[in-house]
Write a structure and sequence with these properties.
Number of strands: 12
Structural class: alpha/beta
Oligomer: single chain
Organism: Streptomyces bluensis
Distance between the termini: 45 Å
Domain Metallo-beta-lactamase: 26-224
Radius of gyration: 17 Å
Number of helices: 7
Protein name: MBL fold metallo-hydrolase
Low-confidence stretches: none
Pfam family, one: Lactamase_B
């Protein structure tokens, strides 16, 4: 890497993996760097924010290297509206998420949601017009080889926060823990948000799958807020189960 994570305002989570916390909604974006490819996890809340993420990734990667793969953890505006800024990348999402991102009604619902939460109306309209549909649909687990021994596992662990929740596991090593990007299945900076597209009856089970995926020693990266441990995820799982009356 040409510059350090800290030099561009990112948090290093392990060898070749880092994340940044974007302003306004404290939304996480992640980056995993291989020798031949690089995976961005979520794309920010606007085309401008996506362009910022792409530029920072280029500084980190060095030379003329760019992001080659993009994983969308779920179809909410603050995670997908920047995707069109990553031209030519291979885009991954949980199976069925493309249906949420297709058609005039879907674009209008996401645009209206973004404006309701404070995104500039012109920025919301531009991003909604350019919504990106994943080309690759993950129904179970999908391993990506980024080169140089760097692999990541994409896992369809939902439904929960939405009907289409994707997690990303970066395997650890003897000297570093696994890192699990959770999307909004886990939130640290506030109470988990259950909108009209949430599936509360299955959310605790989705968190059980996250814990099985990462294990007790993993670093869990919420969609919003600081990185947490397995105990935090388990406590949030139990709180959601009590909140929604499920086991």
């Amino acid at each position: 890497m040409t510059v350090s994570w800290e030099e561009v305002g990112w948090e290093e989570l392990g060898p070749r993996v880092g994340r940044c916390r974007l302003p306004v909604w404290d939304c996480t974006a992640g980056l995993v760097v291989g020798d031949g490819a690089a995976l961005m996890i979520d794309a920010g809340s606007s085309l401008r924010e996506g362009a910022r993420l792409g530029a920072e990734a280029r500084w980190l990667l060095g030379g003329d290297r760019r992001v080659t793969h993009l994983a969308l953890t779920h179809p909410h505006f603050d995670h997908v509206f920047g995707a069109a800024s990553f031209a030519g990348v291979e885009v991954y999402g949980a199976v069925g998420v493309d249906m949420v991102l297709t058609g005039e009604r879907a674009r209008e619902e996401l645009r209206a949601d973004a404006v309701r939460y404070g995104l500039d109306a012109s920025e919301a309209a531009a991003a909604a017009d350019l919504l990106v549909r994943p080309r690759h649909h993950v129904s179970g687990e999908w391993t990506l080889d980024l080169g140089g021994g760097t692999q990541v596992l994409l896992a369809n662990v939902g439904p929960g926060h939405t009907a289409h929740d994707l997690a990303v596991l970066v395997p650890g090593s003897p000297s570093s823990p696994e890192v699990v990007f959770c999307g909004d299945l886990v939130e640290e900076s506030g109470e988990p948000q259950a909108g009209p597209d949430a599936v509360p009856a299955h959310w605790p089970a989705a968190l059980d799958r996250l814990l099985d995926l990462g294990g007790e020693d993993a670093v869990y990266v919420p969609g919003h807020g600081a990185a947490v441990d397995a105990a935090f995820v388990r406590a949030q799982r139990d709180a959601l189960a009590a909140r929604f009356g499920v086991s």
